[in-house]
């Protein structure tokens, strides 16, 4: 497809991460050929049934250029979320960048809850139990995989 705007002016290295259950940060780098006065704006749509929203809190570089965004109260829907970063400059048209992302794939999970260890002297050893970590989406808890590291002292 042909995009309006100067080649090399769209953002690079766009990525997002969800953490602490409902917070999301997205970051990007300015296009390598973008004019110095280029300012970028992020919009996203969590599902096709919701309106697109602009970034709530931009992260700026030392020149005041938007280089990232923070969101609160993010819910992970079953559909892919749509992200669009466009730009403006006095000097030229800026190409836009867009992407569809499955939010559950970018979530950093909190630790498991209520970890308990009960050890006995008999050969049965120890029983370790825990509950699934909190997440903003109701996934199937059978999908979680855990790794236990036991260090003898």
UniProtKB/TrEMBL annotation:
Keywords: Glycoprotein, Membrane, Receptor, Signal, Transmembrane, Transmembrane helix. It is found in: Membrane. It is a single-pass type I membrane protein. Transmembrane segments: none annotated. InterPro entries: FN3_sf, Ig-like_fold, Short_hematopoietin_rcpt_2_CS, TypeI_recpt_CBD. Residues 13-106 form the Type I cytokine receptor cytokine-binding domain. GO terms for molecular function: cytokine receptor activity. This is Granulocyte-macrophage colony-stimulating factor receptor subunit alpha.
């Amino acid at each position: 497809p042909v995009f309006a705007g100067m080649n090399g002016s769209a953002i690079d290295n766009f990525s997002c991460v969800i953490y602490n259950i409902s917070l999301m940060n997205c970051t990007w780098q300015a296009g390598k050929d973008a004019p110095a006065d280029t300012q970028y704006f992020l919009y996203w749509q969590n599902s096709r049934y919701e309106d697109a929203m602009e970034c709530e809190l931009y992260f700026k570089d030392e020149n005041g250029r938007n280089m990232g965004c923070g969101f609160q109260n993010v819910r992970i829907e079953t559909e892919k979320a749509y992200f669009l970063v466009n730009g403006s400059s006095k000097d030229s048209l800026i190409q836009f960048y867009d992407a569809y992302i499955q939010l559950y794939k970018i979530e950093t999970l909190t630790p498991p809850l209520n970890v308990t260890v009960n050890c006995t002297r008999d050969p049965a050893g120890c029983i370790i139990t825990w509950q699934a970590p909190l997440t903003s989406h109701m996934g199937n808890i059978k999908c979680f995989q855990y790794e236990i590291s036991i260090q003898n002292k």
